[in-house]
Design a protein that fits this description.
Shape: elongated
Structural class: mainly beta
Largest sheet: 5 strands, antiparallel
Number of helices: 1
Distance between the termini: 70 Å
Order of helices and strands: HEEEEEEEEEEEE
Number of strands: 12
Length: 164
């Protein structure tokens, strides 16, 4: 009975977390959306969903000739540059995004410092050159930043001898 309850709780938790992201099915052009992330404030909870539609194919120059490259998947390996107090949640297993549909991640948390934070989405594209030769190509998406306003938490030390 105990195992059934724990299993049911785990299943419900997985189902609920998957429901936190409603992909925008009107997105038809590959890329990351929205084009600009919402601003945040120090000490205020931040929650921004980023939609991803992976591209299906591209081309690359291999040995001096242009080759067709078919994308199998895009894996988000890390979001670099988030302000202290923030993180991200992938809604796909192992943060792997297939080019067949719009998927999403959420940037969330409570920022503890102010400033402009340029973000880097580190990804690896898994593909096949000419439909046969598998390749894994790391890349970095650098289109986003988060502006966090407000005062950062800090401790002020007063020296009693300097007070007049």
């Amino acid at each position: 009975m105990k195992h059934f309850i724990i299993s049911a709780f785990c299943l419900a938790s997985t189902w609920l977390s998957a429901q936190l992201c409603k992909p925008d099915t009107t997105i038809k052009v590959p890329g990351f959306y929205p084009s600009k992330l919402a601003d945040g404030s120090v000490g205020v909870a931040y929650n921004q969903t980023v939609m991803i539609l992976s591209f299906k194919d591209t081309s690359a120059v291999v040995g001096g000739s242009k080759q067709k490259v078919t994308i199998d998947s895009l894996k988000l390996t890390k979001v670099i540059g988030l302000p202290a107090g923030m993180g991200y949640v992938c809604y796909e297993p192992r943060c792997v995004y297939l080019p067949s549909a719009v998927r999403c991640i959420t940037l969330n948390g409570t920022p503890t410092q102010s400033g402009l934070f340029p973000l880097k989405f580190a990804v690896t594209a898994y593909a096949k050159v000419n439909g046969f030769f598998p390749v894994a190509q790391p890349d970095t998406i650098r289109e986003f930043s988060i502006l966090v306003t407000g005062n950062s938490s800090s401790v002020v030390s007063n020296d009693i001898q300097k007070l007049s």
